[in-house]
Amino acid sequence: MEEQTQLEEATPEVQKRIQDSFDRQGLMSHLGARIAHIGPGRVHIVLPSRPEVTQQHGYFHAGATSAIADSAGGYAAFTLFPEDTDVLTVEYKINLLSPAVGDHIEAVGTVLKSGRTLTVCRLEVFGVQDDRRNLVANGQQTLIRVNRTER
Amino acid sequence: MEEQTQLEEATPEVQKRIQDSFDRQGLMSHLGARIAHIGPGRVHIVLPSRPEVTQQHGYFHAGATSAIADSAGGYAAFTLFPEDTDVLTVEYKINLLSPAVGDHIEAVGTVLKSGRTLTVCRLEVFGVQDDRRNLVANGQQTLIRVNRTER
Amino acid sequence: MEEQTQLEEATPEVQKRIQDSFDRQGLMSHLGARIAHIGPGRVHIVLPSRPEVTQQHGYFHAGATSAIADSAGGYAAFTLFPEDTDVLTVEYKINLLSPAVGDHIEAVGTVLKSGRTLTVCRLEVFGVQDDRRNLVANGQQTLIRVNRTER
Amino acid sequence: MEEQTQLEEATPEVQKRIQDSFDRQGLMSHLGARIAHIGPGRVHIVLPSRPEVTQQHGYFHAGATSAIADSAGGYAAFTLFPEDTDVLTVEYKINLLSPAVGDHIEAVGTVLKSGRTLTVCRLEVFGVQDDRRNLVANGQQTLIRVNRTER
C-alpha cells in the first residue's frame, strides 16, 4: 500500500511498546489481526477475511470490525502517552456504513484530541479489495489514561 | 440462573429462526459464544472466559464484549420482525464501565422501541462469577429491517 | 404526577447546590426549563411547549430535547459529587425515538455508574400530554468530575 | 472567513429549501443562530456568544453546541435529498472536547455517507475568536429520509 510509505512512523521505543501490548491481546491473534502501521497518534490494524470473523451473510461481523477499530483507536492514543501508563476504552460509537467485504479490512485510529486525562479518537474501517478502499465503518471513541501505580 | 427461568420465551418458530442465523455467524462460534435466552424483544448471549477473548491485561477484550452485545441486540430486534426480513446494525454506542472479568460474560439485548424501519435496543453486558453479576458495559444500538426481496 | 411523590429526595444542601448551578445556566432559563426533581443520582428537568423550542414541523427541536437531557444527566451525576467539585459533560449519545410532542417534555437523568473520575448516566426524555407519558428520546452520557482547585 | 469563499455552493433551489426550513425552526432564531454556508452535503451554522446560550461557567452550553451541530448535520443531509422529502435525526453522539468559548461558535455538518434511507454525517463545532478556530466538539449523526406522502 503506497499510502503507508508516506505515513510518519512513531519512534522505535513507542512502536515496540505498542507491538508488545498488542501481542498480549489474545483476541487480536485469535481473530488473525495484525498491526500495519504505528505513527504518532495514528495506528492501523488489518484483519484478513476468513470464515471465523463473519456474520450470518458472510460479511465481516460488526463485532470483528469494531474490535479492530477499538484496538486501533486505543493504540493511537497510547502512542502519545508517557511510559508507565495504560490506556482504557471509556466508550465508543460506531456506524456500520456498508457491508464489510473485501480481501481484508483495515481499521485506522486517529487521535482527534489528546488531553491530560481523556483522549478522543476518530475510528475508520475500510474494506479493501485489490486497489479499492471503501469506508465501511466510522466511529468515535473516548479513552482514559491510567497511571500504572494507581491501578 | 434462576432469573432466566422466569423470562418469557419466544415462540419455537422465532427461536429456531434466531438460532439458525446465529449458527451461521462464524465469529460467534470462533469466540465460543452461545445463545442463553430468546424472548420476544430480548436475547441473552453468553461468552465463557478463555485466553482467546482477552485484551492485554487478561480481561475480556472490549471487542469481544461489544461483539456479543451487538449480536444480542440484533437478535432481540429480529425476534419482533416478520419472516422474510433481515436485520442490520446501523450503529451502536457502548460504555465499558468496569474491567470485564468473571467466569463468563453475558450480554442482554432488549428492544426499547420497535418501528417500521428502525429499532432501538438497550445493550447490557454483565461479568458473572459464581453468584455475582456485575454490569461491565452498557450501550444503545440502532438497527434497520431489510426486506429480503429488496436486497 | 404521582410517581414523583414516591421519589427519594436529595439532602437540602445538595438540592440547593444543584438549583444554584442550574440558575446560572443562561440557556435553561432562556428555553424556559425548570428542575422538577432532585434525588440522589437522579434529576428531572421539565420544558413546557412553546414556539421558541420547536423545529420546522412544530415538534420540540432535538436540540432542546438534548439540552435538557444533557443537563438532567449532568446534575444527576453532580448530586453524588463532593463539594468543591464541578461536573463537565465528556460526551453523550441520544436516539430520537418519536416526534417530541406534548404539553411539556420531561428529561430524566439517572446515574448508571459513579466512578472516582468518570460517571455514566442514562438519559430519558418523555413527551407528556395530560396523563400520557411517551418515551421520545433515550441516551447515554459520560461525565467527568473536576476538582475546583485544579481548574 | 476566507475559507468559506472557496466552499462549493448548493444550487439556489436547494439553498432556498434549506433556508426556508431553518426559518421555521423556532429554536434556531430563539438562540440567535444563522446559516453561514449551504453546500452540497455540507452546512455551516453560526451562533454568537450571548448570556442566553451559556452554562453555569459562562461557556456555551453543551445543549446549544449540540443544537446547532444537530441542525447543521440535518441540513447537510437535506441538501442531497430529492424534493418532497423530509429529514429526521435518528440519533447522534457528540464529544465536548474543550470549553466552548469565543466570539461565536460555528457548527459544520458534513455528509459522510448518503444512502437511500439513511445518511451519516460528521459534526464539528469550532469556537471562533478573532482569527483562531478551535475544535470544541466533534460528533457523528444518523438521519433518515422520509417521503412527505408517507407521513
UniProtKB/TrEMBL annotation, chains A, B, C, D:
CDD domains found in the cross-reference section:
PaaI_thioesterase
Does the keyword Ligase belong to this entry? no
Its EC number is: 3.1.2.-
Q: Which InterPro entries match?
A: ACOT13, HotDog_dom_sf, PAAI_dom, Thioestr_dom
Question: Could you tell me the superkingdom of the organism this chain comes from?
Answer: Bacteria
Which ranges carry the Thioesterase domain? 57-127
MF terms in GO: hydrolase activity
Keyword list, A-Z:
Hydrolase
| Family in the record | Belongs to the thioesterase PaaI family.
This chain belongs to the protein called PaaI family thioesterase
Q: Which organism is it from?
A: Streptomyces bugieae
Q: What is the lineage of its organism?
A: Bacteria, Bacillati, Actinomycetota, Actinomycetes, Kitasatosporales
